[in-house]
Design brief:
The complex is a heterodimer of chains A (377) and B (450). Chain A is an alpha+beta fold. Chain A is built from 14 helices and eight strands. Chain B is mainly alpha-helical. The chains are: A alpha+beta (377), B mainly alpha (450). Chains A and B meet through strand 1, helix 4, helix 5, helix 6 and helix 7 of A and helix 7, helix 10, helix 14 and helix 16 of B.
């Protein structure tokens, strides 16, 4: 008789293969779920189905030539990947982008954050069985995509930022559109809050499920909304103060244990809704403060970075999105390493999934906002 | 029908053996007619579901096949018939093939005792409602069978969930039906309808026939609650959101019917939609006065064809509202978890159903039917019910007014003050066939792909 170990399931266990082609794993992601009927003993994540070698590609690309590849790291937050990479190279070269470019970056990023959270919140609702909120949030996201298209020509993989600035300027019509969108979207958010966020069934499904305490959240390296839902007060925008964020006023929403415990799935859901409101606030300030001027600093045509190692990070929609660049004095980076929020969120799934039900695993993945391409890169 | 076949035989001067033959033929004809009617209803419901879902989700829904897309369900059915009938290699083949039949038979056989009109019922069994409860239980057998036979773990989980769910929710459903049986004093479907407005004390015009205050839902407070219990339990039995755990798409892929394709899948699919109509029809019969016309006694109605037709329309209309509410719920609410589902059933629905049953019994014992107090209770409950409906509509209009133009809002046209240009729309999405063809002619792209 074989003793039951991690790889040999006990006889009473049902081994389920969830993914790589499963409707709620958000891309190609696989979980090996050991269940006892409906209750999970454990769920082992298996990643790597979307590995495209984006870090290796960097070693064969020139510094500006790598920018479009950063879009593909996470299709939902292309702007943040752009920004993290651009800031890293600017640090190496010692360039400061013009202030207008910085504001344009912030506007693009915050719009991108709203778009990303819209997909996330819609997916959470859809994974819990409500299809309609997803459709409505995607309808709103379509407006953001239209604006992005007007801004930089791309709807999803924006490739908007350049080393030392941004690729395109915007005009007053676009700003008018943005203001119109904000007026519209803030009301939509209120409606969303009253109709969906506090829907009793949704609260029952999410509250007190898969609680992550602050120590665990820090220990597993959770970042962004997942970390803040556990009550840890950390936001790169405010605490590191990159770009023009020090000039802007915004709050950092934290998990309050409104309907359950601090750090449960419901908190992760609510924190994202609150973050969208804060993004709207930031965008309104940017509209007022946007200065005139250049959008691109003087950058040599052929960038030859000096020998240096640099880490830069931005607060993406899934938290701290960091890039570590090693330059060796040539026109190509020696090594680029990305640190993404989904990867660390993935690592905690196995720990918190013990004893949950299968339906809860879906909620856990959705509220942790795991995006497969970002995990695998 | 026996009479009919006897008359035919007598008229033709054949020997009595032919009486049996004609009788059997008549039964077959009726069975085919009922089956076809139920199929059509189920098909139309799939269309209705998609249109309603489209409206709810701020999109259009199917509108290409036939006028308003009304023939979409036929096209879909045709597609499913022509698909390959796939059976997984390791499936339990006989069981796998048998399962859809159990579901189809379970649902469609129940249509035999659905009273579409006073004379439009295939068989007015004297145990009609019990027959209905019993035959629909076949569905859970079919679902469990399909889940097991597919040899797929997701299907199995779906099948087990479904069996547990249907068996559990039959308890509150049957108990709340029993409340109505107590009030009506009969198990026959027609008998239950006639009890709502066709009794001796329903003599005055304002008390005759299908007035709302004669309906069992407004009979007394306990019956009012019993309706909601029945409705919740029936939605759960029909595997509809918020109780659609057996086919929870985001958890179990597609649940028990994951491995099915082609006509066998259509069997499950149509069974589900026929079931929606069935539960609405049963609710109409038990709680909403069925085919009764306000102010007209059943005896009068039986004498006139036009009144019969009107009764049919009334019944179909009431049932359609029920179907609409079920569809509406599906596209509004999230799904419960398994433990919450069972908790809801055994902690809330079952005890309340028992209370309703007891309450109804006590009401019948203490209060004489047709007494002044009885009428006051009916009237008060009716007022209360209508007040609820009015309040609901006030809230909905209030919210719609709040939303205003946000329902259909185009951000890019607001900023630039440009009107909506259909040519741009065509170019961007190729929505209209004319536009698409124009592109094919002008650019060479279309030909290369073709």
């Amino acid at each position: 008789m074989i003793e039951p170990t991690d790889n040999n399931p006990q006889r009473s266990e049902l081994v389920l293969n969830m993914g790589p082609h499963h409707p709620s794993t958000h891309g190609v992601l696989r979980f090996v779920v050991y269940t006892d009927g409906e209750i999970m003993r454990r769920a082992q994540p298996d990643i790597g189905y979307l590995h495209r070698g984006i870090e290796k590609i960097a070693e064969n690309k020139t510094y500006p030539g790598y920018m479009p590849f950063t879009d593909r790291i996470n299709y939902l937050e292309a702007m943040f990947c752009n920004q993290a990479y651009a800031i890293a190279i600017e640090k190496i070269l010692g360039i400061t982008p013009p202030e207008r470019a910085e504001f344009l970056r912030v506007i693009a990023c915050e719009l991108n954050r709203i778009a990303s959270h819209q997909v996330t919140l819609g997916c959470i609702a859809m994974d819990l069985g409500a299809f309609t909120p997803f459709v409505y949030l995607l309808r709103e996201r379509e407006k953001i995509n239209d604006m992005m298209e007007a801004l930089c020509g791309n709807r999803l993989t924006h490739n908007y930022m350049r080393i030392g600035g941004v690729s395109a300027d915007l005009d007053d019509t676009w700003l008018g559109n943005l203001e119109g969108f904000l007026d519209h979207f803030e009301l939509i958010l209120e409606e969303f809050t009253s109709l969906i966020v506090y829907n009793e069934i949704l609260v029952k499904r999410l509250a007190d499920v898969a609680v992550i305490c602050a120590a665990d959240a820090v220990g597993y390296g959770l970042v962004g909304p997942n970390l803040r839902a556990s009550g840890v007060n950390w936001d790169c925008r405010r605490d590191l103060g990159y770009s023009v964020y020090p000039q802007l006023e915004f709050d950092v929403p934290l998990g309050r244990g409104e309907r359950g415990t601090v750090g449960d799935c419901f908190e992760r859901f609510v924190v994202r809704v609150e973050e969208m409101k804060q993004s709207c606030r930031i965008l309104r300030q940017c509209l007022r403060k946007l200065p005139d001027g250049e959008i691109q600093a003087k950058v040599p045509k052929m960038i030859k970075a000096p020998k240096a190692e640099v880490y830069s990070c931005v607060e993406g929609a899934r938290g701290e999105l960091g890039v570590y660049v090693v330059a060796d004095g040539t026109t190509k980076p020696y090594r680029v390493k990305w640190r993404t929020g989904s990867f660390s969120a993935m690592s905690i799934v196995e720990a918190i999934s013990r004893g949950l039900m299968i339906a809860d695993l879906v909620a856990v993945i959705a509220t942790l906002d795991v995006i497969a391409p970002e995990t695998d890169r | 029908m026996e009479e009919l076949s006897r008359n035919i035989v007598e008229a033709l001067g054949l020997n009595p053996f032919w009486e049996q033959v004609f009788y059997a033929l008549a039964i077959i004809v009726v069975a085919v007619v009922v089956f076809m009617a139920a199929l059509t209803i189920a098909g139309l419901l799939t269309y209705l579901e998609r249109r309603v879902a489209g409206r709810i989700q701020s999109r259009v829904g199917p509108n290409r096949v036939g006028p308003l897309g009304l023939l979409q369900w036929l096209a879909d059915g045709l597609k499913l018939v022509m698909k390959e009938d796939l059976i997984p290699a390791c499936a339990d083949r006989p069981m796998f093939r048998l399962a859809p039949y159990a579901v189809v038979v379970g649902v469609f056989a129940a249509f035999v005792s659905v009273p579409f009109g006073q004379l439009l019922i295939a068989a007015d069994l004297n145990v009609g409602i019990i027959y209905l409860l019993a035959i629909t239980s076949l569905v859970s057998v079919g679902v469990l069978m399909s889940g097991w036979a597919s040899n797929n773990k997701w299907s199995l989980l779906g099948g087990i969930r479904s069996a547990a769910q249907i068996v559990s929710y039959e308890v509150p459903s049957a108990l709340s039906i029993l409340s109505v049986v107590l009030l009506a004093g009969t198990l026959s479907m027609q008998g239950i309808i006639q009890a709502q407005g066709g009794q001796e004390y329903h003599a005055e015009f304002w008390a005759r026939g299908g007035w709302p205050w004669n309906w069992f839902i407004f009979h007394n407070p306990f019956a009012f609650i019993a309706f909601f219990l029945y409705f919740t339990a029936a939605v759960a039995e029909g595997n509809r959101t918020p109780f659609d755990l057996p086919e929870a798409e985001s958890e179990l892929v597609s649940g028990y019917n994951t491995e099915y394709s082609g006509m066998r899948f259509a069997g499950f699919f149509l069974g589900e939609f026929a079931n929606i109509y069935l539960m609405s029809a049963v609710a109409t019969t038990l709680f909403f006065g069925g085919w009764q016309i306000p102010g007209i006694l059943p005896e009068e109605q039986a004498s006139s064809w036009s009144l019969q037709l009107m009764g049919l329309l009334i019944f179909v209309f009431k049932a359609a509202i029920g179907c609409f509410v079920v569809i509406w719920l599906r596209w509004t609410l999230p799904r419960l978890r398994v433990d919450q589902l069972m908790g809801l059933c055994y902690k809330y629905l079952v005890p309340f159903a028992f209370i309703c049953l007891g309450g109804n019994a006590v009401y019948i014992l203490l209060i004489k039917a047709g007494s002044t107090f009885d009428w006051i209770v009916h009237g008060a409950m009716t007022l209360f019910g209508f007040a609820l409906v009015v309040y609901f509509f006030v809230r909905v209009t209030h919210h719609i007014r709040l939303v205003k133009d946000r329902v259909d809002f185009d951000i890019l046209s607001r900023g630039t003050k440009k009107p909506f240009d259909p040519a741009v729309q065509t170019r961007r999405y190729g929505r209209h066939r004319k536009g698409a063809r124009a592109l094919e002619i002008t650019g060479q792209q279309g030909k290369e792909i073709g």
